[in-house]
Amino acid sequence: MNLKHLETFHYFCRLGSMSLTANHLNVSQPAVSQQLRSFEAECGVKLFFRAGNQYKLTDVGDSLFLLSKRIFCRVEQIEGLLDKARKTHQERLRIGSTKAYARSLMPDLLAQFQKKFPRIQVRLSEGNSADLIARLRSRREDLVVVARTAYDSGLRAIPFAKAEFILVTRPDHPLALGGAVSVKELDGESLIIREQGSGSRDAIMKKLTYHAVTPSVVVESESLSFILAYIERRMGVSFILSHDVDRELAAGVLKQVHLAEGNITFHADIVTLRDEPLSVPMRYFIKIARKPPEIGVLKPSELQFVPGGDRS
After folding, report:
1. Confidence at residue 86, expressed as pLDDT on a 0 to 100 scale
2. Domains and CATH numbers, the chain
3. How far, rounded to the nearest angstrom, does the alpha carbon of residue 37 sit from its chain's CA centroid?
4. In this predicted structure, what is the pLDDT of residue 78?
5. How far apart (Å, rounded) are the C-alpha atoms in residues 119 and 142?
6. What is the mean pLDDT of residues 32-38?
7. Which residues in 36-64 are b (16+ Cβ under 10 Å) and which e?
8. How far is the C-alpha of 97 from the C-alpha of 79, rounded, in Å?
9. b/e map of 76-88 (b: 16 or more CB within 10 Å)?
10. Closest CA to 163 of 237, 247, 244
11. What is the rounded CA–CA span in Å between residue 201 and residue 79?
12. What is the pTM of this model?
C-alpha cells in the first residue's frame, strides 16, 4: 500500500473537496484525482461512488476512512511532539563546565550571551571533564568546557582558554620558608588534588610523573572548600588556580610556593558533537568566548576549529 495515496484518501474524505485536499497537501487537483484512482486500484475494491456531483464512500471506504483517522491522528501527534521539541531546543542552551570556569569565566560570558538572546533559557551544569564529555555524548549538554585531552573523531574541539595552577600551602610549611623549589622536592609530600576524571588532576599528575615525583599521601576531593580547609589544618600542599585563592593569599592564610620549573599550565576547550550542527545560540556563545574576561592567570586562546584526535 502506498502511504502517500492513503494520506490523499484520508484528507479527501476529511475535507470533502478536491481543491481543499490539493491545497492541504500542496499538490494540484489532477494529482489528487490521480492518486485517489491509483489508491482504489491498489485496494482492489470500490471505495467511492458518485451521487450527483458528490463522491460518497462505500461501506469499505467508510471503514477504511475510520482506520485512517487513527493513523493520521497519531501522525499529527508525532508532528506536534517533534515541533515542540524543536522549539524547546531552539529556546535553550545547555552548557556543561568544569568548576573552575563555572566560577570564574561563565558569569560574565553568560551575561553577554543573554544580552543578545534574552529569551534563550541557559542551563549551566558543573562537573569534571570526564563526566561532562559523557553528558555531551548522551546529548544532555549542547556544549561543554573541559580540560584538553585526546578527543576522538566524533567530537569537535575549539580552543577556549588556558590557566596556570600555582602550588600553595600553609605559610609555616617547610617548602614555604625559602625561595623557589624544584618539583622534585614534592616527592614524599602530602598532596591534595581533585577527584578522578578531573582535567586539572590529570595535568598535575602528568607533571609530577614527568619529574618522577611520588607524593606520600594523595587526598582526593571535588570540593575546593575541603581542599583549602585541609591545607590549613593538615600541612598538605595543593595546585590551585590563583584566582580561587586570592583572598587566602592576601590574608596570609596560604602562601604560594614558587616552582623553579614554572607553574602547571592547564588548557581548556569548548567541545561539541561533530555530527550535530551548531545552532545560532551555540555559534554566538563560541564567538563571545573568543575573548573571555581575564581573571587571575586565565588567558583566552585564539578561536579555531581543530580536528578530533590526540592533541595533548
Report:
1. 63
2. 3-90 (1.10.10.10), 92-312 (3.40.190.290)
3. 51
4. 86
5. 17
6. 90
7. beebbeebeeebbeeeeeebebeeebeeb
8. 33
9. eeeeeeeeeeeee
10. 244
11. 46
12. 0.59
